[in-house]
Each structure stands twice: as C-alpha cells, then as structure tokens.
Amino acid sequence: MTAPTRPVCVLVGAPGSGKTTVGQAVAATLGVEFRDTDADIERLAGKPIPEIFVDEGEEHFRTLERAAVAAALASCPGVLALGGGAVLAEDNRAVLIGHRVVHLSVELPDAVKRIGLGAGRPLLAINPRATLKHLLDQRRPLYAEVATATVVTDGRTTEEVAAEVVTLLGH
Ligand SMILES: Nc1ncnc2c1ncn2[C@@H]1O[C@H](COP(=O)(O)OP(=O)(O)OP(=O)(O)O)[C@@H](O)[C@H]1O
Ligand SMILES: O=C(O)C1=C[C@@H](O)[C@@H](O)[C@H](O)C1
Ligand SMILES: [Mg+2]
Question: Which of 26, 5, 7 is nearest to 151 (CA)?
Fold first, then answer.
C-alpha cells in the first residue's frame, strides 16, 4: 500500500503576504510542484475569482474553496498555497491539522504597499484600507492557530522569505 500524498508544506497568510510568489520560489528550489487553491478554483469555475464573487457571491466561493483545499491537501506532493481567507472556515482549519503549515505574516503597511488598494479584490471594494486592517486583525489568530511555523515577511524580499522557508523545511 502506498502512503497518501501530502504537501511538502502548506502556505497560509493574508493577501500580499507572498504565498504565491514565495511558494513558487520554494517549489522551484526544492524541484517540486507548486499548487495554489485560488488557481484551482478559477480553473474549475472557468472564471476569475472576482467574477465568482460577483456572479455567485462569497458564500459560494467559500464552498468551492473548502472543496479545493480538501482536494489539494490529498493530492499535492509539493508546495501548496491556500487562498488568504481559507482559514476562516473551521473545516479548513481542521483538515490542516497534521500538515506542515507555514504562516507568512504581513502587517498593514507592507500589505498595502504590495497589493495596492485598487480594483480587482472583491473583499476590498469598499473602504479598502480599513477593511484590510479589519481582515488582518480578524485573521491573525486563525493563521496562528493552524501554523506550525511563522515567517515574518515585512521589510524582507521574497528571496529572503523563500530562503527561510526552505531552511525551515530542512533543505
Ligand atoms: N516579501 C515581499 N517583498 C516585496 N514584495 C512582495 C513580497 N512578497 C510578495 N510581494 C509582492 O506582493 C504582491 C502580492 O504577492 P502574492 O501574490 O505572492 O501574495 P499572495 O499572498 O499570494 O496574495 P493573495 O492572497 O492575494 O493570493 C506581488 O506583486 C509580489 O511580487
Ligand atoms: O483574503 C481573502 O479572503 C481572499 C484572498 C484571495 O487569495 C482569494 O482566495 C479571494 O480573493 C479571497
Ligand atoms: Mg496568491
């Protein structure tokens, strides 16, 4: 019997923490697959995430996300990045238990610098700065709950962050 496939590591963190950018760099260094549940959802839905929010609403997106997280955890042998809000669902937090979960932490100033406050983020459409602050405050304890390690990203380059993740993984 073969052992079930498990990700080398799962990256969680707020929008702009660098899950996708850092995840791709870590996967390239380790020579493993990179997977991102946001991309999985867009492929399955056949449209970009902002359109899913507009057409079907956030609740429907979160349903798709729970399915995408469970499927990716069971089938990705590489580096897996989760959507920024995946930790909101208790189901997702529960299914992460036992996995190596790295929280890429970011505070408001760097998050704003990186993602800007323009169009394209459905959750930040109204009063973006205050909404992003609220989102960070609400989620900080949830990222901490699921994480087996935290890497601070503020004031650091993606290369520095990726190198620390690779070291954490023992490579
Ligand atoms: N440590 C960093 N320093 C400077 N810029 C960064 C850093 N990490 C990420 N960025 C930049 O911030 C932007 C957002 O990064 P990225 O898409 O990787 O974040 P994310 O965590 O995947 O966000 P989302 O939750 O929206 O998927 C990109 O332009 C990326 O190049
Ligand atoms: O922070 C969030 O709730 C989100 C982050 C993105 O990764 C996407 O999953 C989506 O835009 C929702
Ligand atoms: Mg991303």
Answer: 26
Contact 114 CB / ligand 1 (< 6 Å): yes
CATH of domain 9-165: 3.40.50.300
For ligand 1, whether the C-beta of 161 sits within 6 Å is yes
pTM score, whole prediction: 0.96
> What's the 3-state SS for 118-143?
CCCCHHHCCCHHHHHHHHHHHHHHHH
* Ligand 3 centroid distance, CA of 153 (Å): 14
Predicted confidence (pLDDT) per residue in 10-55, tens digit = 999 999 999 999 999 999 999 999 999 999 999 999 999 999 999 9
- What is d(CA 72, CA 7) in angstroms, rounded to the nearest whole number? 8
- Distance, in Å, from the CA atom of 157 to the CA atom of 131, rounded to the nearest integer, reads 25
